[in-house]
Amino acid sequence: MFKKGMSLSIAFVLVLAVVISAFGTQAFAASYPTYSLNLVVDKNSNTAVLTATLPAGVQSGKIVFDTSDKLSLVEGSLASDISRTVYEDYDRDGVSGLSVAFAYTEDYAEGTVVLTVSFAVNGTATDITGDDINVKLWNLSNGRTRLATQADGDVNKNVVFVENYTVTFNVGVGGSVVGETQISVPAGTAVADILPSFADGEISLVEGFGFKSYSVTEGNVTSDMTIDINFYQIGDVNGDGSTDNLDAAYILRHDAKIITLDDDQSLAADVNFDGTINSLDAANVLKYDADLIGPFEYLAE
């Protein structure tokens, strides 16, 4: 017969053996954090940008990967805002490729981007798949213990194809184009999402000019397109390109109901931005013409 103490010890060992047998490595494997590689392939420019994101609770780690010959590294593009070391030519212990090592004193939030890198696509962009990225090593640590040592089969690879189009903003005053800006946006981008912010409450983009309108404000970007941005010159009521006593006269005649300013003239006439056109605006125009006051925008403050 076993003694009571021995019986309890043997029972504990048997129970532990059953637990390990039942759950084994699967239980520990299931606790491994998941990380992701996201490859955005631009079909227009035949380029691709790869980002790697982390799970929550990670404090440090390292990734080493390479690509197929369908992707050519853009030299100098491998970067990370949180990395300790970046290698475009990593080669240690029989593992070679592109590498980023990172460390921090606190846990990274889930989805933290640990690296970005750009590639030129050789051949047809739509032929690119997740198999064109080969993860050779990815170590993750929570600062105390290694959470996982994973290779290619454990990583989530997401490949997204986009088409980018060029949107040209033409800035015009009084029917004349005075400036141009171009941006590149993915196909399907809502026009409303790319309109410059000066339309939301700001008085003007350039000192002395007020925002009037856009030629396009709705819909999605489905091809290269041009959006006209229209401005008016504050105080130039008669549209002759200057702000002087003639403009003040237009304002006073409108206030006296001798004439009626049209919509464009009304925008230019309300120089103190109070929503009405009266003798106060005329007085400010005369002060401006005499260099007694500066830009009209300051009257709105």
Give me the secondary-structure topology:
Blueprint lengths: L3 H27 L5 E7 L4 E7 L6 E8 L3 E3 L9 E10 L2 E9 L9 E9 L11 E9 L4 E5 L5 E7 L1 E10 L2 E11 L4 H4 L14 E6 L10 E9 L11 H11 L7 H7 L9 H11 L12
Parallel strand pairs: 1-10, 11-14
Antiparallel strand pairs: 1-2, 2-7, 3-6, 3-8, 4-7, 5-6, 8-9, 11-12, 13-14
What report would you give on this structure?
This protein has about 300 residues and is α+β, with helices and mostly antiparallel strands. The strands form three sheets. A five-stranded mixed sheet has the order 4-7-2-1-10, with no helix packed on it. Strands 5-6-3-8-9 form a five-stranded antiparallel sheet, with no helix packed on it. The protein has a four-stranded mixed sheet with strand order 12-11-14-13. The chain is about 20% helix and about 35% strand. Strand 5 and strand 6 form a beta hairpin. The longest helix is centred in the N-terminal third of the chain and has 27 residues. The N terminus is likely disordered. It starts with a helix and ends in a 12-residue tail after the last helix.
Q: Keyphrases for this structure?
A:
5-stranded antiparallel beta sheet; disordered N terminus; 5-stranded mixed beta sheet; alpha+beta; 301 residues; 5 helices; single chain
How many beta-strand segments? 14
Number of helices: 5
The gross shape turns out to be: elongated
H and E string: HEEEEEEEEEEEEHEEHHH
Strand order of the largest sheet: 4-7-2-1-10
Largest sheet: 5 strands, mixed
**Gyration radius, rounded:** 32 Å
Query: Structural class given helices, strands, pairing?
Result: alpha+beta
Residue fraction in strands: 35-45%
Low-confidence stretches: 1-6, 8-32
Mean pLDDT: 81
Helix content: 10-25%
Q: Report, as a whole number of angstroms, the end-to-end distance.
A: 95 Å
